[in-house]
Amino acid sequence: MNNDHFSWIPFYKEVAEKLLTYKTDRADLLSWIYQSLDSKFTSYLHEASGDLLSDTDPFTVLGIFNRKIKAENRIEITKQFKEFLQITSETPKDFDGIPVLNPLNSFFFAFEDKRNNNDIENLWELFEQVLNNESGMEAAFDLVRKQPQINIKITMGLYWISPERFIALDRNNRNYLAHYELNLPPKLPIFSDYMKIIEEIRQKMNDGKIAEKSFPEISYNAAWGAENDVVEDESDNESWYSEVLKVWKYKKNIILQGAPGTGKTYEIPELVVRLCNRMPQHTDREDVIHAYKQLVEEKRVVFTTFHQSMDYEDFIEGLKPEVSDGSVNYIVNDGLFKSLCERAQASSTQNSNWGIRPNPVVWKVSLKATYDNPVRTDCLKNNRIRIGWDEYGELISEDTNFKDGGRIVLDAFINQMQVGDIVMSCYSNRLIDAIGVITSDYKWDDTLPEYKRVRYIKWLVKNIKEDIFDLNNQKLMTLSTVYRLNSITLDDVLNILTKYGVKSLSEEKKDEEPYILVIDEINRGNVSKIFGELITLLEADKRTGEESEIKVRLPYSKSGFKVPNNVYVIATMNTADRSVGGLDYAIRRRFAFIPLYPCLLDNPGFNEELFRKVSELFVSNYDAMMQDYHIRPVASDYLSEEFEPADVWIGQSYFIMQDKNGIDQTFNRLQYEVIPILREYIRDGVFKDTETIEQVIMELENDSYDD
Q: What is the DSSP letter of 42?
């Protein structure tokens, strides 16, 4: 073994031993990390809420200098660890062959709201068992293995602290050892199986079937043979999508937040397509947009922009005036979110054996009159409902003279009722005597002596006397022949049927395809007003089918409403827009906030020189952030203390200086987009060093006129 390649081993092992002394003193360890290490290396160490970690484990600490960052940064960090821990071994000069963590997945434990009380303690226990080679190693490993956030990377951690005994099962090693006819698992095995893998590799090395003689040699050659350091998971771009989707599936609601030009709206189509498993084989932007538009056409995706005049009535439901027979009536009009939820609910459950359609309307029907009469008897016997106004004839049109009334009733019976809707037969102003499902379109039956307008019914229960006064929002049924019972839901109907011994509806569960609401500029609307009481229903554990499922009764329709589990919300928020209000804590608690920082683009029209010139007005750690997109921005000396750089830093899209036809747009970009924003920032007090900013603006103006 060439020791020049493995100078890191003594240092790593000594760091591990010193870290173990902080098992009962983690507060001091964290204090040093936050206070002494450069924040550009530790800014990712926070809870989902943004709060600093109150606890950590030794593997995550080692991960600070074992992430995919520049080698010189890793050297700088190890030097600070050497000083703090009083390490005697020399700091590594290179890190060849050491498996590194994905910058977006550098924790060995889950966020506070998902981890168990003992998860971090269990990691310390495993760490200690391994270092001391104690008998409880297997039990500790298998306990950690069951924790959230743990995967193959725990074997990377074991390799860091004991490379002669453990091999990392990272992708580089798996691919490399496949050439030796060893198929290592991509998922973390139990400890006994992991040790069998290790023994099998040792045996092949001893037998000369593997050229290398140690695990570090294998890792070194595996990394050398790879094009780059391959982190576990995917490329940086793929990793970002994977991480966002993981959060989105868990939280159900996310907000992409960032300054202008950071790609918030741009990223939505691909995130939506990925969530819906519609990602095309070729990931060209045009293909992604095509797949996104298909989802919109299928009404799986609804797009809206919040604005100051938007309200609950637009979003959930409201009353719409309708003029009929010289009088104004108000009908309930469904808003876009309610409509989306109803489609999502219908997609996940198919009422299979009774013919009830998804999201059925419940209708009240009077069969000639209340109580027993020949028309009622006929309808219940012959599976139909009948209504009158025979004098108007079979067909109803705008020219019909409704001299005796009935316009609204006839329109409901002929045009609005649908096959699969539910009918309740009115026996008295409080009682129903039958419940059925509509099975036919409107028909005119000239063989009948009267009440010739007919729809056929599958009666589910007959000859009952059920009081629906309470279900009907404590209202008596009126004399009108046909109208919607908006306050009575399908669940209410099923409960009545169960009461009378009718078997519960057989439901055929379908794959819960995602239905997605896209909200652009969410902070431009009064979110609390728009969502109203439904804001609670957005929580993941309050959705349909969850343990804490909540159902509310809507104010206008009086119908029950729940948010299906397959409804997802994605929104954008421009952090630089100070003309609109922020989001209150109730809203923030129900959304996961995904920050988008400016970044370099692999685009022939992208001008990195101009991007850097403007970016350095906002951040002092430009180079570090361009190398590792997970590093948080540090404010420049020009920026006012009142502003966070991430909230105002002009994004990369403003520096694409060629349009799709290859025509240079530098003049237009700078003169009409970038420079006006900078001047607006000066007026708003974003910058404290206005002289420098004015100088940069002059340079940009000169740049815009350059050929």
A: H
> 353-505: what fold?
ph1033 like fold (3.10.590)
Angle at the Cα of 638 from the Cα atoms of 637 and 641, rounded to 5 degrees: 80
Dist CA 283 CA 381 (whole Å): 61
CA 291 to chain centre: 18
CA 465 to chain centre: 47
CA distances from 317 to 64, 238, 337, 532 (A): 51, 39, 9, 11
Say what angle helices 191-206 and 137-145 make with each other, to 10 degrees.
Answer: 120
Q: Are 223 and 168 in contact (CB under 8 A)?
A: no
Angstrom distance (rounded) from CA 303 to CA 93: 52
Distance, CA of 438 to CA of 362 (rounded, Å): 10
Q: Which of 515, 120, 108 is nearest to 296 (CA)?
A: 515
Beta-bridge partners for 176: none
* Other C-beta atoms lying within 10 Å of the C-beta of residue 502: 14
Comparing C-alpha atoms, which of 10, 16, 162, 8 is closest to residue 85? 16
Do you know the residue count of the chain?
Answer: 707
Residue whose structure tokens are 């009907």: 472
- Return the DSSP state at 675: H
Q: For residue 325, what pLDDT is reported? A: 57
CA 45 to CA 501: how far, in whole Å? 58
Q: What pLDDT shows up at residue 233?
A: 43
How far from 316 is each of 332, 443, 500, 563, CA to CA, in Å? 10, 35, 34, 12
Contact between 436 and 422 (Cβ < 8 Å): yes
Structural contact between residues 103 and 236, judged by C-beta atoms closer than 8 angstroms? yes
In the prediction, which pLDDT does 355 show? 83
Angle (CA) 170-174-176 rounded to 5° is 120
d(CA 697, CA 674): 9
Predicted local confidence at residue 436, as pLDDT: 94
Provide the pairing of β-strand 349-351 with 482-484. Answer: unpaired
Contacts of 642 (CB under 8 A, 6+ apart): 685
What is the distance between the alpha carbons of residues 155 and 167, in angstroms, rounded to a whole number?
A: 7
Name every residue whose Cβ is closer than 8 Å to that of residue 652 and which is 6 or more positions away in sequence.
261, 262, 263, 598, 599, 600, 601, 606, 611
CA 443 from chain centre, in angstroms, equals: 47
The residues near 63 (Cβ < 8 Å, ≥ 6 apart) are: 101, 106, 107, 108, 157
Which residue from 252, 248, 110, 275 is spatially nearest to 542, judged by alpha carbons? 252
Which residue, among 525, 512, 522, 594, has the nearest Cα to 275 in the 3D structure? Answer: 512
Residue matched to tokens 């609204």: 408
Torsion angles phi and psi, residue 111, rounded to 5: -60, 160
Question: Identity (one letter) of the amino acid at 634?
Answer: V
CA distance 560 to 103: 45
- pLDDT, tens only, 253-295: 999 999 999 999 999 999 999 999 888 755 678 888 989 999 9
Angle at the Cα of 217 from the Cα atoms of 215 and 223, rounded to 5 degrees: 105
Sign (positive or negative) of CA dihedral 617, 620, 621, 623 = positive
Rounded CA separation 578/305 (Å): 17
Domain layout of the chain by residue ranges: 3-225, 353-505, 600-705
Q: What are phi and psi of 635, to 5 degrees?
A: -60, 145
Given 3-state DSSP classes, what are the helix, strand and coil percentages for the chain, each rounded to the nearest 5? 40, 15, 45
pLDDT of res. 27: 93
pLDDT along the chain (707 residues), means of 10: 73 95 94 89 81 93 89 90 94 85 81 87 96 92 89 93 93 85 83 94 91 90 58 56 87 92 92 88 75 92 90 86 65 86 72 74 92 93 93 84 84 92 94 94 93 94 92 87 88 86 58 87 87 86 85 81 91 77 72 89 83 93 76 90 91 89 89 94 92 92 76
